[in-house]
């Protein structure tokens, strides 16, 4: 079916308010979240059904979208809709405590699992790229990226600086689509951010949205501002229009050692994502056009230089880590920087310890459409976890700085135990009428027990189990068994076809007692899969978490 | 952990009878079926936990086996045990209508999904090859192979000979592990089987087990016996000690056209599985040792000859098909037989039409251990489906000819609608005490809606969706949602790591009303996934089945 602007305009707005368009709140939640994923304020290219992340879609085509909507409206409370890569393929009898929707996206038999075959099948209309939260109807806009970055720096703070970046100098580079969240994430953690970005327009964009506080063309000035703020304990972010290596060289020469050091240039793509040193942006753009090979070669030379500088600053005491852009890999594999991997990736260093506690990107959405409902949930969360300082900081800053996109939503990382507490509290709010309509609770697939992705989330597992994909499968099955509202298993999200298997879970707090029982189960089991996965891989923190929450099977059986 | 004979002897016998060793019949069923899979009469190498199919195992190692047993004994009726590639990793709270065990076996992130990586992970103790029914505890010995072969020939009979092979001459070759089931399957369908097998001891073995009726060294004599039986309408099987190509040449020369023609030599392995023409078995064995390259080359030459003969006989009117041994592929790819694929594979030709009706390898096991219980179920089945002649023929012959291995079991192919009827009837038998203990109902993963395997079950799908693996995932999820007793998702069964994704389902008929509700749901939904999968791919038979059983989503929504 051709995709035309008529189709999208036909779709209409996301339903909000307290009236049902379906036969129950769970079906209604799925309907609203599907619409929300394709809201023009949320989706990247709603006219093509593309939500985010390349071609991550919410439905296979407009015909499939229409059919899903019809099916959700017709679906009884003891039936389940099956969605095969964005196309509804059947409704089968189940029961009230079963999911209302089951989704499998982009799954291929492994030997055929590459982009070429996938694109062919997609072109034949047989599949769809579901990314993570696009095809599982729980994307909530860019709040997720800010929060993920915030959480990484919060963990840096916890591990090295007593829980706050106050009084620390945090140096990075790259203020693009994802990297642009760094300055905000760092100031939210009370630190000073000094970021090199070679393209001025990128910095201006971050200033406009208030993700960044100040800009300068002078490296000298930038460093001065930063040291001043650090000394005063002020949370400020500074963008310097320059190449990353020039900023780092100035720090090395002046004998200034940042407290933390990372990088989010798009080093994974040497031609399009990274700028070589000793040339202007204009010169680089010309060279890229005229002599791509030469460009790539100069890019890689600069990356090698860049990594050596980072290693030097690490030696001088900077907490240094790779932010998933393959900078280390490029320098190591293509420029022979043998010790490039002496600084760690951000997942093993900062995300995995959180995963070991069952922590991950918990999020919720107010189906009423009323931002006030989220404010109410924010308050409840602050009351529930008074000891969680980074959570409190996040919620307060998010209320001030994060604009809602589509249905009002909030994201924050919660761990084993915390998730069920939050879910039950939200259900109580709905029951008591303190929020206007049910709350949808979900998470990214990039979570503790729901993803196998050897180049990212499961990189360098302690026991070498990076490529084992049983865990996301068990996660999808236990959430189905527990009675999540909709459950999905996807292939290829985040890192592309062939490189990951991951599961999604969404559960609706509609205020009923049945929902309470399901929430207790599902929000216990879902992170528990992650604790068990990391326990099995030999992580001590996971062993502690398992002990605390009585998850260890051997302990139970040896009683 | 080392695998020693002490371990297996420690295991003990499969529990039988009416006393529980666990806290409920579902847990008990899982326990008994796990034991049964490793019964010395059932498993190929129980001491290594290998059940069948290369290294298809029931548990990762003896430590894991012990822990599963302990866990099943401790498991409450509202909890679920998680098994990751043969190792129990946790027990989580669910509810009575959820599966008691969820299993994921051998799943790998696709880019890493090959034997090399798998074997490395296996060696590290991190994974296990689950095959299909080995790691999902529903293997029942060689009855499955006989029945699958029987069903193929029954479908041949239905499509071409009015439902019976009576009065037909069916020619094949290869009477090895699987191929040895052919003579029995053909005579059970009332036809004459004339099979070439080069190794005399293989034929003797089949005579001993009564899978084969007669043997001769003379091709002349074999053909004479066969034509005589065909004329008289007698069901007889004849093994001729000769190379397949010599038998086919004789038929061509004598202008005798078989009614059906296939082959089950192990042509997929040119060195070990196939004998070249113009040499004795002894000469071949010497050549294989001394000059393997030469052996393979001569093998391939013979295969080319073999395929050309089959094409010639097909031209003369023989219903000719490939039986999944890659004979066509070898002749085509390595000896340039351009038209090798002019005769079809057995799945697209004979199995897929059954899949389109939701038919597949339904099986059940008497937990009492008493063969009489199976006899009772056999009778019930005959009463339930009096119009199904091939079913009746199978049951009667199976009662006479098939020896039970381990717990008494029966297999027969049932379709959409039939499976729920059978399941409910068995539950009634349990409730009314007409059988001594609950009945376990399951199936092979090689089923209509549960497997994606482009080189076998999903070869040459009408819409090109061979490699799409969403279907087995949805199958596992809907069976989990419906309340099957245990559910599994596996990778690599049948065709090896990288080449398939498939799901398993087992449900216990314990006589309760709750079980009745679950049986009705699960035995409806499980084959329905297959009907929907084939409907989506454009098969007319599936469209008819969907209409008959009200499975078509568009029909429902356009009401
Ligand atoms: N693994 C993860 O979860 C994760 C999370 C966030 C980001 N990343 C990675 O981070 C990288 C950035 O992502 P993005 O979406 O922000 O990319 P982007 O392409 O939108 O932005 C990259 C920015 O870097 C700037 N840049 C390039 N070379 C530079 C140099 N030498 N000096 C200074 N600035 C330079 C560019 O001008 C651009 O603004 C990507 O490689 C991405 O994969 C990974
Ligand atoms: N796709 C399926 O579901 C399916 C089902 C059954 C069998 N198969 C295939 O069928 C083949 C046979 O399986 P098996 O387990 O019986 O194998 P096997 O190796 O046990 O037996 C093969 C037999 O063929 C005989 N043989 C070899 N070359 C011969 C020749 N030129 N002439 C006469 N006899 C010859 C051998 O002596 C041996 O007895 C395999 O390739 C298997 O993969 C596939």
Describe the structure.
Two copies of one chain form a homodimer. By secondary structure, chain A is of the alpha/beta class. Chain A has a domain at 143-344: Rossmann fold (3-Layer(aba) Sandwich), CATH 3.40.50. Chain A contains 20 helices and 17 strands. Chain A has helices spanning 5-11, 25-37, 62-74, 115-123, 143-160, 181-188, 200-208, 219-232, 244-253, 281-290, 292-315, 327-335, 346-356, 371-384, 389-401, 418-431, 470-482, 513-536, 540-548, 553-557; strands at residues 50-52, 56-57, 79-84, 87-93, 101-105, 169-173, 192-197, 214-216, 237-241, 260-261, 319-320, 360-366, 409-414, 439-443, 451-452, 486-491, 501-509. In chain A, the strands form three sheets. In chain A, strands 3, 4, 5, 12, 13, 14, 15, 16 and 17 form a nine-stranded mixed beta sheet that branches. A six-stranded parallel beta sheet of chain A has the order 8-9-7-6-10-11, sandwiched between helices. In chain A, strands 1-2 form a two-stranded antiparallel ribbon. In chain A, strand 8, helix 8 and strand 9 form a beta-alpha-beta unit. Chain A is globular, with a radius of gyration of 23 Å. Chain A starts with a helix and ends with a helix. The mean pLDDT of chain A is 95. One nicotinamide-adenine-dinucleotide (NAD) is lined by residues 173-179, 196-199, 202, 243-244, 264-268, 273-275, 323-325, 456 of chain A.
């Amino acid at each position: 079916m051709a995709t035309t602007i008529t189709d999208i305009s036909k779709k209409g707005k996301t339903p909000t308010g307290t009236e049902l368009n379906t036969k129950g709140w769970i079906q209604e939640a799925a309907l609203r979240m599907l619409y929300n994923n394709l809201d023009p304020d949320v989706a990247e290219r709603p006219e093509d059904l593309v939500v985010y992340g390349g071609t991550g879609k919410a439905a296979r085509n407009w015909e499939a979208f229409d059919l899903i909507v019809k099916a959700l409206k017709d679906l009884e409370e003891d039936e389940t809709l099956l969605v095969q890569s964005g196309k509804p393929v059947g409704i089968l009898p189940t029961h009230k405590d079963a999911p209302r929707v089951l989704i499998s996206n982009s799954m291929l038999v492994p030997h055929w699992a590459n982009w070429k075959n996938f694109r062919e099948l997609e072109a034949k209309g047989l599949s769809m790229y579901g990314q993570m939260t696009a095809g599982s109807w729980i994307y909530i806009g860019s709040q997720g990226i800010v929060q993920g970055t915030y959480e990484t720096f919060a963990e840096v703070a916890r591990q090295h600086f007593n829980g706050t970046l106050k009084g620390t100098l945090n140096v990075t580079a790259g203020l693009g689509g994802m990297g642009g969240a760094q300055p905000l994430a760092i100031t939210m953690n009370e630190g000073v951010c000094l970021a090199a970005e070679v393209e001025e327009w990128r910095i201006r964009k971050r200033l406009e949205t208030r993700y960044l506080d100040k800009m300068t063309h002078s490296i000298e000035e930038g460093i001065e501002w930063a040291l001043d703020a650090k000394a005063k304990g002020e949370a400020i972010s500074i963008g310097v229009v320059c190449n990353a290596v020039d900023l780092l060289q100035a720090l090395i020469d002046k004998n200034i050692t940042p407290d933390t050091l990372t990088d989010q240039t798009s080093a994974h793509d040497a031609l399009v994502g990274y700028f070589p040193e000793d040339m202007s942006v204009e010169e680089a753009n010309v060279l890229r056009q005229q002599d791509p090979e030469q460009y790539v070669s100069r890019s890689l030379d600069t990356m090698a230089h860049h990594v050596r500088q980072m290693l030097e600053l690490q030696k001088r005491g900077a907490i240094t880590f790779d932010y998933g852009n393959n900078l280390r890999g490029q320098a190591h594999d293509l420029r022979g920087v043998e010790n490039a991997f002496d600084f760690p990736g951000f997942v093993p260093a900062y995300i995995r310890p959180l995963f070991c506690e069952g922590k991950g990107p918990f999020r919720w959405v107010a189906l009423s459409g009323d931002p006030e409902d989220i404010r109410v949930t924010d308050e409840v969360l602050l009351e529930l976890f008074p000891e969680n300082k980074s959570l409190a900081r996040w919620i307060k800053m998010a209320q001030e700085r994060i604009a809602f996109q589509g249905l009002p939503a909030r994201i924050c990382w919660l761990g084993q135990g915390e998730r069920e507490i939050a879910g039950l509290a939200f259900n109580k709010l709905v029951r008591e009428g303190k929020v206007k309509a049910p709350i949808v609770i979900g998470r990214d697939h990039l979570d503790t027990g729901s993803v196998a992705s050897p180049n990212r989330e499961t990189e360098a597992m302690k026991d070498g189990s990076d490529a084992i994909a049983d865990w996301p499968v068990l996660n999808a099955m236990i959430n189905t068994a527990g009675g999540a509202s909709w459950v999905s298993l996807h292939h290829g999200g985040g890192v592309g076809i062939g490189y990951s298997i991951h599961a999604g879970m969404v559960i609706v707090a509609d205020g009923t007692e049945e929902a309470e029982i399901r929430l207790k189960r599902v929000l216990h089991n879902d992170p528990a899969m992650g604790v068990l996965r990391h326990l099995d891989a030999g992580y001590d923190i996971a062993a502690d978490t398992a002990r605390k929450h009585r998850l260890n099977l051997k302990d139970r059986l040896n009683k």
